[in-house]
Amino acid sequence: MATAYHHLSDYDASTVPSAHDMRFGIVVADWNDRFTYSMADAAIETLKTHGATADNILVKHVPGSFELVYGAKWMIDNAQVDAVIAIGCVIRGDTPHFDYICQGTTQGLTELNVEGKVPVVYGLLTCNNMEQAEARTGGILGNKGTECAVTAIKMIDYARH
Ligand code: DLZ
Questions:
Q1: Residue 86 within any structural domain of the chain
Q2: In the chain, how many domains are there?
Q3: CATH of the domain at 152
Q4: Is 3 part of any domain?
Q5: Per-residue model confidence as pLDDT tens for the chain (161 residues)
Q6: What separation in Å is there between the alpha carbon of 13 and the centre of ligand 1?
Q7: Which pairs count as long-range contacts for 106-110, CB under 8 Å and 24+ apart, including other chains?
Q8: Residue 69: inside a domain, yes or no?
Q9: Beta partners for 91?
């Protein structure tokens, strides 16, 4: 599980199907935007690298990670997407707020996957501090957005075959 042994931007491109006919929704939380925007940029770049067109990538913003569930559900119900990538970054503070946001958001995104209309990819960073977020958004551990994009393509392909 430890990301320390896994670089988030390293993957075998030969295992990634073409995304030329796939449509993606990306929901981005604006809290900690320094990190979430970097993840969104990396996700978009990776989708395009694998053939997705700009027309087939719908990006919408929500205020915070807790709103990702509504944002993802909205995409599923209204935007004819084949997969949703939910991007957020929660950083631990002094109160238990962190735990509730992480728990609620994770539970909500899981429920959307159980509903099973389209795959929802988990791009929620849950970090103890800024350094951990930096390392995973273009720092020494790569970029979580890249990993999410590859996962979205593979899950759409999974659902089609
Ligand atoms: C309120 C809050 C706090 C304290 N911290 C974060 C955070 O680290 N990352 C994040 O994405 N959002 C945070 N939020 C905002 C909540 O996700 C949510 O937007 C508000 O509670 C309103 O529902």
A1: yes
A2: 1
A3: 3.40.50.960
A4: no
A5: 666 668 999 999 999 999 999 999 999 999 999 999 999 999 999 999 999 999 999 999 999 999 999 999 999 999 999 999 999 999 999 899 999 999 999 999 999 999 999 999 999 999 999 999 999 999 999 999 999 999 999 999 999 99
A6: 34
A7: 108/68, 108/69, 108/72, 109/68, 109/69, 109/72
A8: yes
A9: 127
Largest CA distance in the chain: 46
Please name the residue whose Cα sits nearest to atom 21 of ligand 1.
Answer: 66
Task: Decide: 34 in ligand 1 pocket, CB within 6 A.
Answer: no
Cβ(88) to ligand 1 under 6 A? yes
Rounded distance from Cα 67 to ligand 1 centre (Å): 9
What positions carry a catalytic annotation?
97
Query: Is 101 part of any domain?
Result: yes
Residue 73 structural domain: 21-160
151 lines ligand 1 (CB under 6 A): no
Put simply, whether the predicted model's pTM sits higher than 0.70 gets the answer yes
Within 10 Å of residue 15's Cβ, how many Cβ atoms?
8
